[in-house]
Amino acid sequence: MQEHINLFSIMAWAGDSSPSGKAYTKSELLGKLAAAKAAHVHAIVPAFPFVFLADRRASDGKITCWHNDPSAAATWADVSQAMVDQGYLIPGDPVHSTVVAVYIVDEPNDDTCLNDINGQANPALVNGINAVRQDPHTGSLPIASIVNGDGFDKVFAAMKLLDWVGFDHYGDDDGKWARTFAALKQYAPGKKYIVVPGAQQGCEDVHLEPTARYFTAIESDPDVTWIAPFAWFSGSATCLGVRDLSTLRSTYTAEGLKIRALQCSSSPEDAAFCRGSASVIPAINLLLD
User: Fold this and answer.
1) pLDDT, tens digit, for every residue of 89-141?
2) How far is the CA of 164 from the CAs of 59, 117, 144, 191, 207, in angstroms?
3) Phi, psi at residue 103, to the nearest 5°?
4) What SS3 state is found at 263?
């Protein structure tokens, strides 16, 4: 996907919030950043493996609760320093930096114990956001999250702490989607927004959605900063993502090429960052695919 994206969403996590688990996840993250840098693609990196403690259900590994982590700032500082030391993060220089944003956590209004409390953002979420925002290496990076479209009321306060915010709610018709998007803008005004098309076939809870409204949003709405189709990968032989749906892959590839071309031609520095992605070694191609 390297030729038709300009933001590589890294969600690497071993599923273990112990010190050894975080160390393993850190190594996975740095490996994926090496791939992104070699492919001349910017990246958004996950904070959640490093700034929360997690409860996981034994049967399927699903997160059942995120908790406050008193060591969040120290753990994140270690990760951010490694990203700087290895040349993936250049603070204050997003054009030349591989890392350009931080994904704090997915769906904080799902059943993961991060809902607002008495009208205030959840302390565990505030602690995690502060770990990123108060770090001198990452304080200027946008902090992003995609929330569940069914429960904005659960995170009214939390959404105001974000820089980029979007929602996922697959299968809505155009009218309902537009109303939900308008509500998001009302509840979290002045943000940059993420649009999330359903882009899987034969999968539980995700629908294969038409692309027109999402392409219109990213092309025409100056406040929409990221189109993040879910998902590129396939979950199984019957649960297929964009990668394995030839018509949809062509459609998203064409749109992605347009978006990437705009970014890569926006300044001489952007053009320099983008150059060279066609000659990436096969091992990097395999990693990104």
Assistant:
1) 999 999 999 999 999 999 999 888 999 999 999 999 999 999 999 999 999 99
2) 33, 22, 4, 6, 24
3) -95, 110
4) helix
Task: Give the CATH number of domain 2-288.
Answer: 3.20.20
- What is the DSSP track for 158-220? HHTT-SEEEEE-TT--HHHHHHHHHHHHHHSTT-EEEE--BB-BS-TT--B--SHHHHHHHHH
Residue 179, amino acid: R
pTM of the model as a whole: 0.93
Q: Which two tokens stand for residue 109?
A: 């209004």
Taking the alpha carbons at both ends of the chain, their separation in whole angstroms is 6
Residue with tokens 């974000």: 162
Question: Could you state, in order of their start, the residue ranges of all structural domains in the chain?
Answer: 2-288
Residue 49 to residue 53: CA distance in whole angstroms: 8
d(CA 88, CA 36): 9
